[in-house]
Amino acid sequence: xxxxxxxxxxxxxxxxxxxxxxxxxxxxxxxxxxxxxxxxxxxxxxxxxxxxxxxxxxxxxxxxxxxxxxxxxxxxxxxxxxxxxxxxxxxxxxxxxxxxxxxxxxxxxxxxxxxxxxxxxxxxxxxxxxxxxxxxxxxxxxxxxxxxxxxxxxxxxxxxxxxxxxxxxxxxxxxxxxxxxxxxxxxxxxxxxxxxxxxxxxxxxxxxxxxxxxxxxxxxxxxxxxxxxxxxxxxxxxxxxxxxxxxxxxxxxxxxxxxxxxxxxxxxxxxxxxxxxxxxxxxxxxxxxxxxxxxxxxxxxxxxxxxxx
Length: 309
Prior knowledge:
Blueprint: E1 5-9, H1 13-22, E2 26-29, H2 44-56, E3 60-65, H3 74-86, E4 91-94, H4 97-106, E5 112-114, H5 123-131, E6 134-138, H6 145-155, E7 159-166, E8 169-173, H7 177-184, E9 199-202, E10 206-216, E11 219-223, E12 227-229, H8 234-237, E13 244-247, H9 254-273, H10 282-289, E14 298-299
Parallel strand pairs: 1-2, 1-13, 2-3, 3-4, 4-5, 5-6, 6-7, 7-13, 12-14
Antiparallel strand pairs: 7-12, 8-11, 9-10, 10-11
Helix pairs in contact: 1-2, 1-9, 3-4, 5-6, 9-10
């Protein structure tokens, strides 16, 4: 059977090398000005170096252009995409139709991965973007197993990407809410970035759950209090030919991400070698658990939940 792609993220060239050596077939990177919730920001020179490094190892580089693009930034978009096409990167992830329009204006042939996340909940919308030239759709994290399988059957030859590990975004605002609140109570915070260790809790309802909170040039982000981990359910997920499995590395150390990629690489290879004889091996998950933050539970996310909208 055809193996699904194992996709990772990287916040630096060093981490990029590590996850590729660990078995990643592709890596998503980007620049904070054009991509959101990235583990690190890559300049154009860094992106060019990343492509050279990855291609030499037989891997691919995808660049995230999932920014909420405003009027001020719009005039720079065409030039940014032209430079990515000149390198060339292997694909770009986008959600804003302005990106598609800029590519059409410039007649650029960059492969497109539609990654609107929260709105990618049905295959009809994905087929709309397929007809516009998108090669892949990134499924919403809230879809369960049955919905994901129906999604793949509905889009046919279009590729489907599913997040199998890591944190997910719960809330985003362009406003600097933490700094505003700190100012309101008369405090000054020198660091509100991903490394600051800030979090939100629901004091009355769920005081035990910590939701990581950080601010960057794109605004305020609140992340899930736990991490998706579909390693034990990989065989059930791959009962339909899912095309790409993503290990999200945001808010994790390079060592953690390298270990997670290794575990998923072993599981994918074992399953694809002989699906009928496949058996999950606890040591794959044990290696991840050794590095897992004890305050963050590993869960199946929405994979086995029945959604009520």
